What we know:
CATH superfamily of the domain at 2-158: Cobalamin-binding domain
Strand content: 15-25%
Largest sheet: 7 strands, mixed
Structural class: alpha/beta
Oligomer: single chain
Number of strands: 23
Radius of gyration: 26 Å
CATH topology of the domain at 2-158: Rossmann fold
CATH architecture of the domain at 2-158: 3-Layer(aba) Sandwich
Number of helices: 22
Helix content: 25-40%
Strand order of the largest sheet: 3-1-4-5-6-7-8
Amino acid sequence: MKNVYLVQVSTVYGDEVKNAYIPYAAGCLAAYAWADSEIQKNYKLGRFIYTRENIEKAVESLDNPYLIGFSSYIWNIRYNIEFSKALKKKYPDCITVFGGHHISPGGRHLNEIPTADILIHGGGEEAFKEILEAFSGGKKLSEICNISFRSSDGEIITTESKNPQTTDYPSPYTTGIFDGILEDGISFSALLETNRGCPNQCAFCDWGFLKSRVRLFPMERVIAELRWISDHKIEYVYGCDANFGLFSRDLEITKELVRLKKETGYPKKFKVNFTKNKFDTVGKISKLLVDSNMSKAQTISLQSVSPKVLEIIGRKNLDMDYYSGLVKFYAKEKIPTYTELILGLPGETYESFSKGLCAVLESGQHNAVNIYPCELIPNSLLGSREYIEKYKIKTVHNKFIQYHINPDSVRDDVEEYSSLIVETKDMSVKDWEKAYLFAVTVLGLHTLGLTRYTAVALRKCKNISYYDFYNGFIEKSLESREYTYTHKLFSDFKKHFSDVAEKNGPIGIVDDRFGHIIYEPDEILFSSCLYDMPEFLKDLEKYVAELCGDSPFTGQIISFQEFIMNVPGKKKEAKSFSYDFASFFNDFFSGQTDIPLKKAETQITAESQMPVDCWKDYVREVVWYSRRMTNNTVCKFY
Length: 638
């Protein structure tokens, strides 16, 4: 029998507890192919290579490989290439097949990857199986759709492009494909695919090039996979569907997940990408997940608030009034939400991006916003020559290093890269750096809570906009050395983003005070300011006094802001204030934004909702794990 191996490597997360995703894409290929008796007769499926193993040792471990398939994307393409080089050196006749979203239509990657023998374009189940059949005496490669290969005289041949119509693929979970790796001593997370395809054509995304209709997988398969996940005690499930909630049956799938958790305790969390235009279904799904403590927060994606940008990227967005209504509805139902924006899209300026972010705050989203620096994804419209030239897009070849991993785990590894947009005809590099600093400041200080209550009080009581508050705080701190702590803080972060844009430096930051983990910049900004809270608040109070006078109100709101922050070792305590801050903020964040702040002597109690004793545990448990689901950086106050 001929030995076949599949490679789909991803990052191992965490420091002490190792967590990795099950190699779902590779498993799908194997499940479909080895369901065929002829494939079983002619080929033996070897082990999956799913973590970034030392390449030389991994190649040495292979037993006379006949064919190896590589599932490729931004986070593993260079590893796959280097693996194929080492493989060809030891086994020059081994057939190498490259597929995955990274592989573009046509055969250009055969020129870029000399050690690749065959490319698969789009969904790979049918093509991979037929390739195996071809090498066991079946059809010719030229008769297989959606592949590229070299002819005997070196000519690159690309076959007919055809969208698969299959919906009854066998499950890699229930067919036992993954049974072997479950013994590897890793805490696995699972990927769940209930349908495949996307009806949208967003320019920044690579789903569009497939141009395939959405195919629903049979409910029998989906339910069986949920049972497998539950029985195998998989804690975290990521939904691969591009638009979960688009179909009414998604509510039934959620109900089954909730039922299984009640029965077995697993899965504990379920994260999905929600559709944006099916509010009734999505609202019911979110409520079920929250009530069963399975929610990883409800996504309300915007990508940009600028009509110009949205037109350029081909995305019809939610009306901001409707968006605000969604935020308030979810807040009332106690359903955590987060909003996504992208920095660096064509048409965006520093002002439109920064004021757009503040419009999100104005609409009621104060707890969680994700800002993604725009990448030129392979096969996206944004990555096409037409878009690049039209909008004068400039990128840096940035090191692709996942957040929340131990940096030592990638020190001797093959480096991966992504193309990060740092300039367009509407936003210079300097404005990109400035916008990134503004974004990280709002995320790190406002959404994580350290200036949120101060900013809201000034917005409601002094009519100071969020944009003016945060833009002014950054500028004042950078300009004046009298702002001792924040001058250095913002100067260091400004340099960091300059290094990202001009020197291809990594975006993530390691600060050993908080564990030997690569954290997101806003997580480090917040954690640093909280760690040095007295120094930080001294500068904040100075700034607020310049805005609205050195009044009793200034001292009171800063004192309240400090009092309610959850820090390691925080104990339940009470304090008196001359303003009824507790009632005002509890009303405001429940959607009652018109009730004024009353001046009244009140005693307020602050109680940690998630007590943690050391900084390393705090940043991991409270800042990283819980930020989208809860607001544990701030104490419960009443």
